[in-house]
Amino acid sequence: MIPTEYYIFLGTGLFTIGVIGVLTRRNVLIILMSIELILNAVNINLVALSQYFKHVDGQVFAIFVITDAAAEAAVGLGLIIALFRNKETVNADEIDLLKW
Amino acid sequence: MLNFIWLIPVFPLLGAALQLFFGRRFSNRAVSAVSVGLPGLSFLWAVGCFAQFLRLSESYHHVSLYTWLPAGAFHLSNGSLVNHLDVKVGMQLDPLSCVMMLVVTGVGFLIHVYSIGYMAHEGGYYRFFGYLNLFMFSMLVLVLADNYLMMFVGWEGVGLCSYLLIGFYFLRKSASDAGIKAFIVNRIGDAAFLLGVMLLVVTFGTLDFHSITEAARSGQFPVGSGVITTICILLFIGATGKSAQIPLYVWLPDAMEGPTPVSALIHAATMVTAGVYMVARSNALYVLSPTALGLVAGIGAATAIWAASIGLVQNDIKRVLAYSTISQLGYMFLACGVGAFAAGIFHLMTHAFFKALLFLGSGSVIHALSGEQDMRKMGALWHKIPTTAKTMLVATLAISGAPLLSGFFSKDEILWQSFSSPYGNKLLWAVAVVTAGMTAFYMFRLFFLTFAGDSRVPHEVEHHIHESPSSMTVPLICLAVGAVGAGYVGWPKVLGGPNWFGKFLDPVFENPALRPALEHTWNQEFGLMLLSVAIAFVGFFFAYRWYVKQPGIADRVAAAAGAGYRLLLHKYYVDEIYDALFVNRVKDLGSALAAFDLGVVDGGVNGVGWATRMSAELSRWWDSWVIDGLVNVMAFVVKLMSWPARMVQTGLVQNYAWFITAGVMVFMLYFVFH
């Protein structure tokens, strides 16, 4: 049986990769994929801790997160398409309309 | 019928209203029917009223229609209080207004008939008849009015119609200029007339002819009273304007620019005699002022000979007649001025016939010659337009004073009165007699140049010559009958007649203040009559010799006279002198006032405008630099201070994500190391 710490480390690693991806990559599509990584890191934590505590709530929560991620991907991709139509770019540095 | 005398002026007024409001839609035939029919109706009505008037016992009839101007209490110039002054619209019929009414409606109607033919091919047919009817209305108001103010309404009305009709061909500059000249010259006289009327109000407290006459005859004003003299002179200045006397006669020759029936009706038969009528109407006042009578007689005689001398050499057929009219009006004023008002009115009546006839005849000649008015381009028309020629001959004889025609009776009455009246003297008589000779000369000169001798008509006009239509010749014949017969109503006592005309007018002119005529012998009067006939014959003889017997001699005489001839041909340069003395001075005054207006009045307004603009400019500068400046400075300071805060808001999502992450890290580090 694999000790729970390993899962936590895996989750932490995935989360760190995801956060670094969100902060450093300029392509909005990749930022979206990085967010998926963060969500899945959370999922791994939830499932691992559910198994550790012998409690099923964590797994149910993971299912919700997966659903949520699917919906979020659909909305996110839609936003990217709308953005591209207007700005003809998916570079996050060029999207600064909310400036002063 | 007598209570409806107001219908006499109302008929033509109706015609004028119809023509001027709706005339454009009528056919010429309908226009003639309405506008000639209504004056005809008013003539018939006038004849009916006259017939009834003759049967009245007191030879005065008065109809009061309504109160026109009710005025309050005021003080007379002598201090007494008048409780109220009501100027009424009323009409009075007395022998004098009867004569005027019949002359105006009768001659006026004939001239209306004549105009049907004369104006047939002219534009503005309905307009012409509308003005003509309006004139008839005004003239009838003038002669039927029972007070000075209503008379003044008619007086101004005829002036207006005269102006409109002189300028009838308003596209021609000379015609519109002549209309304006007539209007302005008349206005000078009218101003004096109005002043006279005002003085009448403050002197008598009333404007009724009847009351003023009563007051004047009652003896409350002594003969020679200053205020009466002033009134008379002011009224007479009005008359000199309307009746074309020295010094205001200059408009009448120019008035010949109007259509010929207008010259006949307004500038010969009726309107220009309004001044004579007014002086005769005010006879009770004039006899109280020997000064004013002397002035009237002097001006009348001077005008008579002055205008006659100009008429001797004029070449335009209508201008000769215009000067002749001025001269004959001078005769009428001479008669009034020597106290022989009846003789003046008698001459007014006979003159209306023969002068209207002369004008209409000359219109017929002009019509036949396709508009030619220069007598140097006429001649030998006797057989070509026989009716016109014969009627013209009758009128020429009448005006020259040929025995037993109307002009003979009236003119001799005037000559005799100016000789024998206590107000007259031999100088006035001599002037009048010389004028009579001149009259005979220039009238026969006109007649011979037009109808006798060799034809000087240009060839292209020659074959168009035709006698006028019957609508023109019938009035000529009617007037010729009048020119022969009108004198017989005043058949003088010296020739064994009753002088019915003089007796008829007696109720108006019998006057205690009028000095009785000097005793004179029958021989004297008859001798003077023969003398005036002889003088007239001399005039005729010279005209015959110079223009028929030996044509060409006239030119030699003119050349011999040299400067004198040119002086007459240029009408004594009176127009030029008036231009230099008055007209141009008034124009200068106008220019000076215009310059004042532009420089000072407009300058002041413009200066205020400039000052306003400058202060606005200043205010704008203050606004944009100081007020706006303060606001802008404050905004700038805020902008400057917001700079650090603004730098944080990049709009880039990833920057915000960095802030979040950094914040989380800070919190985590705090919790880990705390």
Instruction: Work out the strand percent of chain B.
Output: under 5%
**Count of extended strands of chain A:** 0
Shape of chain B: elongated
The residue fraction in helices of chain A comes out at over 70%
Principal-axis shape of chain A equals: elongated
- What structural class do you assign from the helix and strand content of chain A? mainly alpha
Query: With helices defined by DSSP (H or I, 4 residues minimum), what is the helix count of chain A?
Result: 3
Summed over residues and divided by their number, the pLDDT of chain B gives a mean of 91
Give structural notes:
Chain A is mainly alpha-helical and 100 residues long. Chain A has a domain at 28-88: Helix Hairpins (Orthogonal Bundle), CATH 1.10.287. Helix content of chain A is 78%, strand content 0%. Chain A is built from three helices and no strands. Chain A has helices spanning 4-24, 28-53, 57-87. In chain A, helix 1 runs antiparallel to helix 2. The model of chain A has no long low-confidence stretch (mean pLDDT 91). Chain B is mainly alpha-helical. Chain B has helices spanning 7-22, 28-54, 95-118, 125-144, 148-166, 173-204, 209-217, 226-242, 251-254, 260-269, 274-281, 283-286, 290-311, 317-337, 341-368, 386-400, 406-420, 426-451, 459-462, 470-485, 500-509, 522-549, 553-561, 563-569, 574-641, 643-648, 653-673, and strands at 61-71, 74-75, 81-82, 85-93. In chain B, a hairpin with a 5-residue loop joins strand 2 and strand 3 (81-82). In chain B, helix 8 runs parallel beside helix 13 (290-311). The A-B interface holds A 19, 22-23, 26, 31, 92-93, 95-100 and B 646, 649-654, 657-658, 661.
